[in-house]
Amino acid sequence: MIPATSPLAANGDTPDLPFYAASGDECMLFEQAWRNRLPVLLKGPTGCGKTRFVAHMAARLGRPLYTVACHDDLTAADLTGRHLLKGGETVWADGPLTRAMREGAILYLDEVVEARKDVTVVLHPVTDDRRTLTLERTGETLLAPPEFMLVVSYNPGYQNVLKSLKPSTRQRFVAMEFGYPDPDTEAAIVASETGLAPDRCVPLVRIANALRDLKGQDLDEGASTRLIVYAATLIKAGMKPAAAIDAALLQPLSDDPDVQAALARVADLALG
């Protein structure tokens, strides 16, 4: 177990932390999971702040962070490492999982279900009470230090039968559900991220929430907090609000002209 002294108490007010506005007790839950050597699964829609949350917590806990964006071609060897030719010799190069275990870092696997199935096989002994990683090519068996933590994320709304976490994998993690912040908090986040006046961020959040109500009808996914930040950034840079809203909040959501027209009408109604 990590010593009882709380890194959050010591570092919680550090001004250079990646900004994150907590909506509940997720920061304390993450710290307790880290202190007690428990892996964490983050669930939530695209652009709701999962990656920023992990970066924030890694900084607050004073741990190095390795982030891997998972994809269809990601293999177990990409995580653990492989032999490479260097200067006419074959040398072993650690992958991010191996480096994180050696250093006692936090490893974050974003959209873990996009990775190939052999990745989860490697993760199983890392996520149970063994906390070990066997490198067959080097003959090593690494035991994770107390400070090491594995965090994975995925978007349940985007997954299907062919891409989902097996129960045997899901039940190895402490799960945390993420959603979009309440409107006031989201407007404050956008203002903090972009420097745009809070009263000018409120209408953007209102539009985004109106678009989110369309999820499951005309849209697979609603407007994310990230897209609101993009729109506010363009407005702060001098672009007209209508053009910024179209480019950042409407165009990324659909390529269908009819859906685009409907989204524009929804945005106009949200603005009043």
Automatic annotation (TrEMBL):
Pfam families: AAA_5, CbbQ_C
Keyword ATP-binding on entry: yes
Transmembrane spans: none
Protein name: Nitric oxide reductase NorQ protein
Matches recorded under Gene3D superfamilies: P-loop containing nucleotide triphosphate hydrolases (3.40.50.300)
Keywords, ordered alphabetically: ATP-binding, Nucleotide-binding
Keyword Nucleotide-binding: yes
GO molecular function, one term: ATP binding
Signal peptide: none
SUPFAM superfamilies assigned to the protein according to its UniProt record, in alphabetical order: P-loop containing nucleoside triphosphate hydrolases
Domain ATPase dynein-related AAA: 39-173
Species of origin: Stappia indica
Highest taxon of source: Bacteria
Domain CbbQ/NirQ/NorQ C-terminal: residue ranges: 186-268
Family (UniProt): Belongs to the CbbQ/NirQ/NorQ/GpvN family.
